[in-house]
Amino acid sequence: MVVSARSWLANEGGKHLVLMLWLGTNTWLFVKTFLMYSGGQQYHYLYKMLGVSTRKTRRLLDKRKTFHVACGVAICIFSVVHVSAHLVNVANFSSSYSEDFPALNLARYKGEDPKVIILTTVPGITGVLLVIILFLMFTSSSHCVRIYNYEIFWYTHNLFIIFYIILMVHMVGGALKYQTNIGAHPPGCLRANHSSSEQQREELEQRDDAEMRCREEAHFQPHCPQTWLWVAGPLCLYCAERLYRYIRSSEPVTIVTVIKHPCDVIELRMLKKNFQARPGQYIVLNCPNVSSFENHPFTLTACPTENKETFGIHLRVVGDWTERFTQLLLPDMRRDLDILPVVHQRSYPKLYVDGPFGSPSEEVFNYDVSLCVAGGIGVTPFACILHALLDGWKGFRLKRLYFVWVCRELQSFYWFTELLCALHLKLWHENRPDYFNLKLYISQADNQQCISEEKYRLLASRLLVGRPRWKLLLDDIGRTNKHKRVGVFCCGPKSISRTLHRLCNSAQFPGTTFEFNKESFS
Question: Which of 403, 487, 370 is nearest to 56 (CA)?
Fold first, then answer.
């Protein structure tokens, strides 16, 4: 039955309008009051005492990738159960074909081939397509596939759009049906023209219970599809977010400078109108000349400040996308190692930036003591934090920062030697030498090189060969900072993050707690 919009508005519009006004008013009052208590100067000390547990909430949200993977594995496991059960159902539809209730059967006749039933019905065809898509998404999500060819993972994972469309259609065929006239046809009653055993007919004739006698044929109809009830809300939120992100990233950025660093690392300095970011956040890049559909996250290594509007990232040339992107930026780039960075200025390809987005590293300033551990190019989120300290950011809680950077090659340290030296000198002149504790490690024992430049001499004394002894390091931090909550931030190989995570859970010092936070984009 087609509903008339005019009639619906006349009969139902009034109450729905009042309901929307009531909900809107309450939502506005809640937001207004929350902002007043959280941002009003008259409630500054009350908010500081009571506050909102933003750190614990953020740390839970930072586990979104783990939650996403857990949901994906759960979907696959329960899909196997679901598919297995329906395969049994199809076999039973074929072998237990009911002559009494032909409308209830999915099979067209007794003994029909189950494969034919699956491939000639809407639930069967859509179910096969859903299983294929889910299999492709699951297998291409493995770590080895993402490392070998990220494009395979990217494109197959975006099949979720087709997956949801097919999912909406999956129940239209109505494989499972329910009875609609239980009052006129009580379950278990039999009519004379229906096949039944002699004993059942005799029992029915001997009984006078009118309720057990069928007054009409059993009628069946499929369930009304309810899948949309579960997916409509999240899909609407997702579409709204994608629309907002599309509008936000619709204007291309201006690439100001491209700097070539040692060990195949490229630094980009960019400019975008009204772009604001905080240390520790990351952005997502899209270069249509490389791929219109691929977006890749990169941590900010420099944020806009009052004195400079540019922001920057460091990317390592690893994989197809970064190689093609680098060729567009520096078509004549040589692959040999340079100790000093090389600055290039030319016309650059069109580039779009979406973000910034939050990450665990934003919380570095919200601890009294923080330990930042970087492995190779994993130093990028902490570089932005060091830039903030150098630029004189104020209003944060951090009283001491431990910084450990592990690299395979000595040349990797030259990515941020200027920054490390400048920050060390700044804190030295401010009479705060203990504020920043720096340790540099070359993991390859056969690499006996050292930082020989005179202007980097203070870094040479902090350069060690070998791997850090993590337990001794955490023990020393625990003894020095008793009865404090230490934030541990890691961005690097899994071997380092697993070791630190285990040590943070097992560290035992009176009143000292190590809270582990990990950056992850892969």
Answer: 487
* Structure tokens that stand for 275 in this block: 């772009």
Q: Is the pLDDT of residue 95 over 50?
A: yes
Q: What distance in Å separates the CA atoms of residue 467 and residue 301, rounded to the nearest whole number?
A: 25
The pLDDT tens digits of the residues spanning 430-457 come to: 888 788 888 888 887 565 566 666 666 6
d(CA 375, CA 494): 10
Give the residue carrying structure tokens 């984009």: 521
Q: Which of 124-133, 411-420, 439-448 bottoms out in mean pLDDT, i.e. has the lowest?
A: 439-448
Sort strands 265-271 and 254-261 into parallel, antiparallel or unpaired: antiparallel
**Residue 124's closest CA among 177, 78, 75, 173?**
173
Residue 199 pLDDT exceeds 60: no
User: What is the sign, positive or negative, of the torsion defined by CA atoms of 326, 329, 335, 339?
Assistant: negative
Bridge partner list, 303: none
Joined together, the tokens standing for residue 23 give 């909900």
Contact 217, 206 (CB under 8 A): no
DSSP at 339: S
Listed residue (504, 505, 501) closest to 492, CA to CA = 501
End-to-end CA distance of the chain: 51
Which residue type sits at 42?
Answer: Q
Euclidean distance between CA atoms 291 and 319, whole angstroms? 14
Distance CA 78, CA 285 (A): 35
Residues in a beta bridge with 299: 282
Separation between Cα atoms, residue 268 and residue 264, nearest integer Å: 13
Sign of CA dihedral 456, 457, 458, 462: positive
Question: Which residue in 300, 295, 273 sits closest to 284, CA to CA?
Answer: 295
Tokens found for residue 143: 């770590």
Backbone torsions φ then ψ of 236, nearest 5 degrees: -65, -45
Based on DSSP, count helices (H) and strands (E) in the chain, helices before strands.
Answer: 17, 15
Whether residue 480 contacts residue 453, with contact meaning beta carbons closer than 8 Å, is answered with no
